[in-house]
Design goal:
- This protein has 328 residues and is mainly beta.
- It folds into two domains: 142 residues, Immunoglobulin-like, CATH 2.60.40.2030; 147 residues, no CATH class.
- Helices cover 6% and strands 43% of the residues.
- It has one helix and 26 strands.
- The strands form five sheets. The chain has an eight-stranded antiparallel beta barrel with strand order 14-15-16-17-18-22-23-26.
- The longest helix is centred in the first third of the chain and has 19 residues.
- The relative contact order is 0.13.
Length: 328
Amino acid sequence: MKQLKYIILTLLALTTFFACEQEDILFKEDMANVGFYGSSASMLEVDKENKGKDVLTVQILVTATLNSPSCNVTFDVDDSWYQKIGDFYYEIVDGDTTLVNPAIEGVDYNVVSEKSVTIAEGSGYAPVVLAAIDNNDFDPLGNKSFRLKITGNSLGYDLSSESVIKITIVDDDHPLGWMLGDYTSAVTETDNGSPEHPVNIAAIEGETDKVKIYGMAGLAYGPPLADPYFILGTVSEDQTTITIKAGQSWDDYDWGPVTLTVWEDDNGEGEEVDDLVGYISTDDGVTITFRQQYTFYITSGVNEGLGLQWAWNADANPNSPVAVWTRN
């Protein structure tokens, strides 16, 4: 009787094991599909460093079973996503109308490859080469974009979820292009910060005098050089100063909410003011010099009152440099 009990328990255990064993999911012929490898990509309008970044290669992907026959795939430019109304182009989705800036084939870019590719092995990738055309004009509507779509294939495969790819052409003709890029900020005196730290100044699409500034709060306590931690600045018409408004804040930063705070002088003995002014020089490269004390105050939480990346100058001369940003 005891032996029979053990046999029953063993059978139950084996039944449970096989019931729980996960079945392998096999890729079947009717699951084959065609699409692009990715749904978006970008390229430069012109690569001033001649590194080939104004030419882009995207991949068409055929997913099929092993030993499938050769597959020919066709694609074309998709102009159906926008329409012209008056002098402008708009994308209309679910009744919402958005102003867009479509790139035109032969004017803004060329499709270098034939609009047909063959995957001889039956599955895998095939390249499509695109090249931007430099127009030497700044576009106030910002970067242009276009879309390619798969139009068919020789084996009647389904389209994948990435049957359309959006390509963005990054405009190189921004009027502030000479000052955009990476800087090293050298701070005269600081607490809760670094004597030197990286800063990046980036363009705002469609804006000719406003920029995004990343990394201003420093690396020791500040956020990384990435969204959403940026500060807005406005460059003067004569391009000799940049004005950064105090009060700009990040509500979700790890140290707590932080707010840019600025004083009227270099050592914080004066009043708080609304504007931090940087003086731009292009005599030997690009430098931006600040002569007012500033910091990023934490406004609530356990770290309330702490300032991140203080910048000041304690010498006896008012409005001496507190930080100098030098373009790399």
